[in-house]
Design brief:
By secondary structure, this protein is an alpha/beta fold. The chain has 12 helices and 11 strands. It has helices spanning 12-23, 45-56, 66-74, 87-101, 125-135, 154-157, 175-183, 201-215, 220-229, 250-258, 288-300, 332-338, and strands spanning 3-7, 27-34, 59-64, 109-111, 141-142, 234-236, 242-246, 265-269, 277-281, 312-318, 321-327. A 6-stranded antiparallel beta sheet has the order 6-7-9-8-10-11. Strands 3-2-1-4-5 form a 5-stranded parallel beta sheet, sandwiched between helices. Strand 6 and strand 7 (242-246) form a beta hairpin. Helix 4 (87-101) packs across helix 5 (125-135) and helix 8 (201-215) runs antiparallel to helix 9. The relative contact order is 0.11.
């Protein structure tokens, strides 16, 4: 029996690609790569693997790609998409990593759920061919949903799969995929959506503004953790090179605590409920003036007194500081001027 490694996103197309091969007797191992920006549904890998096996009969292997992904996010060879998404470089990276696993996992070829012409940046015919070459996957990369529209691969030529039983789908419509899903008994699958947060137009500005400072951090692990911080909360630059993130509810406060690095400072209200603030240096100095601004931002979003932000005690805890003092809240106009990082860490990473 032949074995295929299928790049797996958990979406309908990758489910169908895996099941089409399984229907031909191919032993399929679905490879799910995760980073801070996609695969948020794999928070618990063991539970996710069990769910995919139960729902679709697909065996999934989860691998973290975050450290390698930082390199292409800093300077993608093929550039960014409309927002902060290095789609072509990302695809090349995933395929290269998958190719390196072929021998270890005793697999014969690779497959993806790509459909010719479905995505404007990475699924044009020329882009798909370029991705094959640059990832070193020419001849071993099969795309079951559109295989009959592509050049035959070694797996087809060697009889590991029957080309006539593969698809010839193209374009952005999903009607044919839905029909195929029904014929395979697949009735429950995710709705189409931008699975990668780097394509989110609302987050793109935040990524642009803080990424230069994040990439200045010497540790790749610190960079990965900092990008995780970008995905929730309110973000401010209280001084050049400083970054303050405020939680908007208890869940986000807990997330901030879990992502705290040893050099970070935490700011908490003492007398009334308020957000947790995490202050991180991106090359800046935490002066008394910067701490006063940060504490004022925490109080601006704390519980109001008679409908207005009010002074209060704020506890500041860090590696080299434990302090509790009374601060005045920033007014909303001043807070909005600092929100999003307009001060101090502004920079451009992806094109407008």
């Amino acid at each position: 029996m032949s074995r295929a490694l299928v790049l797996f996103s958990g979406g309908l197309d990758s489910i169908l690609a895996a099941r089409l091969l399984m229907a031909q007797g191919v032993d399929v191992l679905a490879l799910r790569f995760v980073t801070p920006f996609f695969a948020a549904d794999v928070a618990d890998p063991e539970r996710y693997v069990a769910a995919m096996r139960k729902k679709y009969g697909i065996q999934v292997l989860v691998r973290d790609l975050s450290r390698d992904f930082m390199g292409i996010l800093r300077a993608p060879v093929h550039g960014f998409g409309r927002n902060f998404n290095p789609c072509i470089d990302c695809k090349i990276l995933m395929l290269r990593k998958a190719r390196e696993l072929l021998a270890e996992l005793d697999a014969d070829f690779l497959a993806t759920g790509e459909v010719l012409g479905q995505r404007p940046m990475s699924q044009r015919r020329d882009a798909m061919r370029s991705i094959e070459r640059e990832s070193g996957c020419e001849g071993i990369l099969l795309r079951p949903l559109c295989a009959q529209l592509m050049q035959p691969t070694a797996a087809e030529q060697n009889g590991l799969v029957d080309r006539e039983r593969l698809g010839r789908r193209s374009g952005r419509g999903r009607t044919e995929q839905q029909r195929l899903a029904a014929s395979l008994g697949i009735t429950e699958y995710p709705t189409p959506a931008g699975g990668c947060l780097l394509t989110d137009v609302n987050l793109c500005t935040r990524f642009r503004l803080f990424a230069p400072g994040i990439f200045s951090l010497s540790s790749v692990d610190a960079q990965v953790g900092s990008f995780r911080l970008l995905l929730f909360g309110r973000h401010f630059a209280p001084a050049p090179g400083l970054w303050l993130v405020l939680g908007r509810d208890q869940r986000e406060n807990a997330q901030l605590e879990s992502l705290r690095e040893p050099e970070d400072w935490l700011l908490t209200t003492v007398e009334r409920p308020g957000p947790l603030g995490l202050l991180r240096s991106l090359g800046g100095v935490r002066t008394d003036a910067a701490l006063t601004t940060a504490a004022g931002l925490v109080l601006c979003y704390a519980k109001k007194v008679n409908g207005r932000a009010a002074p209060g005690l704020v506890r500041i805890s860090g590696k080299d500081l434990e302090r509790e003092a009374c601060f005045a809240p920033l007014d909303e106009e001043s807070a909005q001027a600092l929100q999003g990082g307009q001060v101090g860490v502004a920079g451009k990473i992806c094109p407008d």
